[in-house]
Structures are given as structure tokens and as C-alpha cells.
Amino acid sequence: MSDAALLMDRMYRRQRHIYDATRKFYLLGRDGAIAALAPLPGETVLEIGCGTGRNLIAVARRFPNAAVYGLDISSEMLATARAAIRRAGLDGRVTLAQGDASDFDPQALFERAAFDRVLVSYALSMIPPWREALAQAIDVVAEGGALEIVDFGDQAGLPRLLRAGLRRWLAAFDVTPRDALGDELAALARRRGARAQAYALYGGYATRATVDTPGRRIGPGAADPAPAWTGRSLTT
Ligand SMILES: C[S@@+](CC[C@H](N)C(=O)[O-])C[C@H]1O[C@@H](n2cnc3c(N)ncnc32)[C@H](O)[C@@H]1O
Fold first, then answer.
1. What are the pocket residues of ligand 1 if the criterion is a CB atom closer than 6 Å to any ligand atom?
2. What stretches in the chain show pLDDT beneath 70?
């Protein structure tokens, strides 16, 4: 087992039992990112760093004709996800696999090279090689598809003391906000001929970002109205 997998298993062995009940108060913006996925019927959605399966279940319920896939490095988190998906009666709809977001082979794990929608929710801030994970997330988006990201932001709009306290608290959980996310995303999207948008929400507490490949399709069940980008832009 890799060091990264051991670290995540150690972190979540106990936490996973209270994860969903506690994180709903501070992993903000996840449902907006899910609503923005809007796959067409029959399309595929992959969540990278799927954790307890909370988002996978929400995706499968909101988009009942999508095929849903989840990848995580932690076998502990995947055990919780598997049980939650079974309890939700979504066994046949969601496929799980263990892998490292910064280096995985989608064909070997899921028998497909690309996905119509990819979601990365509060995972990049926990992945030291986050630039590699981001590049791979864009690589596995199918033509006409999109990548949706939500994560901790640069907190630039928050009072200085609150910001310092928040950074310290996040660091205790091995979480590092990726302040360069907007720039990195824009560079990777340009290379792919795609369009990136990244915005700071809630004073920079969170970042929401989207990469649209050319000809992006939008299915039913999208956020209504279309995702409202109301925060400070992080892409140039
Ligand atoms: C904060 S949790 C977020 C879970 C879920 N996406 C959510 O929004 O509730 C971060 C997840 O990323 C996973 N993770 C961390 N490093 C990873 C890596 N290198 N590859 C894949 N998953 C990773 C952790 O195991 C954990 O399940």
C-alpha cells in the first residue's frame, strides 16, 4: 500500500463514521457542483476522491439515468461508500474502485478511458501532487464533457485573523487550500482547448471551478438557473 493510501486510511478509519454528519456544516458548495454536472441520460459521471459516497448517491438520485463511478485511495472510505450505496438501493448504479487520483488507469479500473462528467470535491486540497491529479482529471473528461470542482479557497476575502485560524485548523487535517488552482486550471484547460472558470465563493472560503470541453452538452436536472458565478473570478 502506498504512503498516501496509508495516511488517508489512518485519517479516516474512525472519522468516516461521523464524516457525513459533521462535514455538511463546512464542505460548502458541494450540491451546487453536483447540480452543475447535468449529464445527458445514459452519460457517465466519475467522482475522484469520492470518500463516503455522499456525493455519488446525490448524483445517482439527481440524474437517475446516469452511470456513476467513484475513485478513492482509502479502502476505509470505500468500505463506508459501499455500505451507503447499498443502503440507498443504488448498488447497480454506482461502480467503485481504489486508486490514486494523481496516477490511475481508468481503463483498468472502470473499463473506460473517459467520462462525460468528472467531479472533484474537497479532494485536491488533500492531495500533495494536486497538479498531477488535476491534469489527470481533465485528461479523463470525454469530448463534449465537463469537469466540476469545489474545494477550500484562498480565503482572501475573510478577515485576517479568521483566515489564519482557518488555515491552522485545516492544516491539522492535512488540508492545504490550493491558492494557484485558478491559474493551473486555466493553463491545463488551454492545453486541452477547453474553457476554464474558477470563482471564489463566500469570501474565498470555497472555490468553484468548471472546465468545459468544446461542444459541452447540458442535460436535464442542471442547476436552475444555470450555475450562478457570483464570486470573485480566479481565472485570467
Ligand atoms: C475531504 S474528503 C472528500 C470526500 C468527498 N469528495 C466529499 O466531498 O465529501 C477527501 C477524499 O479524498 C481522498 N483522497 C485523498 N488523497 C487521494 C488520492 N491521492 N487519490 C484518491 N483519493 C484521495 C480521501 O481518501 C478522502 O476520501
1. 4, 8, 23, 27, 30, 49-51, 54-55, 72-74, 77, 100-102, 121-123, 126-127
2. 223-231, 236
